[in-house]
Amino acid sequence: MMDLDQALRMDPPGAPNDESTVEQKRSYEQWERSNRMCLMVIKNSISVAIRGAIPDSENAKTYLEYVEEQFKGTSKAHASTLILKMLTSKYDGVSGIREHIMKMSDMSNKLKSMDMEISEGFLVHFIMTSLPASYGPFKINYNTQKEKWTMSELIAMCVQEEERLKAE
């Protein structure tokens, strides 16, 4: 069974010549087939409009590097959008506090995958600032405590507070 991703994992072996061994020729043929298959899969997975903006290459690994280059600017724009969304997110009282916190956490995780990590402590404080005025006493209570909450504790405490506020 041939490794279809061999061309992505390994550098191409030297092109065979008259003095190459059978093993060297077989290795090159396997890599060449893997490379062709990878290029077919990659190119057919990208829309034609985007594919036209990517420089062509006969090497699958190089072609993927070109694809990555094309999307670096896009990931920066996406990061800016996520940061702005986090800065402007406020709990509206409609969707549920757990969902609000999970959305904020999800945005933080997406930023982390772009090498823009937000510490858990900062995220907890940041989410606390996104809560409305009705959570004022709750925020004061949190700020007077010495221990810091984890995200799980924040969710549990906020859900409890949400239920208390709804009961009033």
UniProtKB/TrEMBL annotation:
UniProt-annotated stretches for the region Disordered: 1-24
Domain of life: Eukaryota
Xref: PANTHER family: OS04G0629600 PROTEIN (PTHR35317:SF23)
Name of the protein: UBN2_2 domain-containing protein
